[in-house]
């Protein structure tokens, strides 16, 4: 039969061990070290009931909500998104400059008739078809912009979109400069050539930029930008991003956007505004570049693999710069684009009001 003093010491040791176990579990659950509250120090009670009371206070004290650890693997890095945006804008402006240069080299349609095209042999031209293409493109870009606003990781997705768009238009500058094709139809009206008038060329560049490079705005009256189709690039790239960063269960949403994109691409050919090869090459380059980039971004082992020949591409250093800190696949997560009140006006001391009240007790 043990004495009462021995039982009291046993209870005291058991209670202290329980407090240490509670501390260890709290540290593992929350990921942060927590200081324990000694009931004997507050209440002056060193018995069994006193320690249990202290443990209850300790349990209330360490209950801290910690955000999901995924955020550390997906840093937003808005400054990189800004660099990608500048890169895209630069290449879009460069495209307008290149169109102005190539326009001076386009042969007259009276001397060089349109090249034979199999699609044109079977499908007659429809005048209003190209307006459908540009309207579909504007609707698709607007849908993508709204979807992008609600993405949780919009900074990462945004810089991917800007980088791919800028790279595709850089390729387009090269292809339409090295090979100038004659106009695909005698219906096309090209603006007169300016030859050495640099001031008038600058005015044309600004006019093309202000109108977004769209024929529907009346700003695109130059010829020569045929290989490859910029409208096909935007329709294809925007649809691929909409599908990639939306839930897989939204099949009706994907189908609607695919129809907008597909009808827009077909109407380019129906309007005889581009050769068929222009559209095919644009689709091929856009889709492959999108898939190559996202394969490397989503499969982490490919980045450092010696057998990954995609690392030989010229844009691989740029890819590593943008994706270096992205350590996992970007999930399809959404959030409100604007929170109120903004984070800069929130009082962080309110988070610790419960802790302070417990300490004061």
Q: Calculate the terminal CA-CA distance, rounded to whole Å.
A: 40 Å
Please estimate the helix content.
55-70%
Note the run of SSEs as H and E: HHHHHHHHHHHHHH
Number of strands: 0
Ranges where pLDDT stays below 50 over 5 or more residues in a row are 20-49, 67-71, 344-361
**What is the overall silhouette?**
globular
Tell me the β content: under 5%
**Main pleated-sheet profile:** none
Structural class: mainly alpha
Task: Using the CA coordinates, give the radius of gyration.
Answer: 32 Å
Q: How many helical stretches?
A: 14
Tally of distinct domains: 2
Instruction: Give the overall average pLDDT.
Output: 80
List the helices and strands and how they pair.
Elements: H1 4-30, H2 39-43, H3 48-61, H4 70-73, H5 78-103, H6 118-122, H7 129-149, H8 154-178, H9 198-210, H10 230-244, H11 251-270, H12 276-298, H13 316-323, H14 353-360
Helix pairs in contact: 1-3, 5-8, 5-9, 7-10, 7-11, 8-10, 10-11, 10-12
Question: How is this structure best described in words?
Answer:
The protein is an all-alpha fold and 361 residues long. The protein folds into two domains: 4-66, no CATH class; 79-323, no CATH class. The chain is 59% helix and 0% strand. The protein starts with a helix and ends with a helix. Mean pLDDT is 80; it is low at 20-49, 67-71 and 344-361.
Keywords:
361 residues, mainly alpha, 2 domains, 14 helices, disordered C terminus, membrane, transmembrane helix, Sphingomyelin_synth-like, transmembrane
